[in-house]
Amino acid sequence: MPLYRANIRYTEDEAYAQHGRNIETLVQEKLGEKGGSNFTHMISTRSYPPTHTLGFQAPDNVSLEDLQSVELADGIVIGVQSVSG
Predict the structure, then answer these.
(1) Domains along the chain?
(2) What are 16-44's pLDDT values in tens digits?
């Protein structure tokens, strides 16, 4: 299964206040709906609001475009890149 990296950032402080506590679960649930699995632990910056990064795998039949189309919540942007393994 291909490897991917997700980068998550907040565009609004309110989004961080509302979802920051459960962001890892939210990301895993939403990417899991597209077939994402084998998630690494999320790494977060110390900035405010923080940015987050985690790795995961997805089945061969799931396109990068499908993963990039995942919407988490208003005020949260996710970027997904393919990682060569």
Answers:
(1) 3-83 (3.30.70.600)
(2) 999 999 999 999 999 999 999 999 999 99
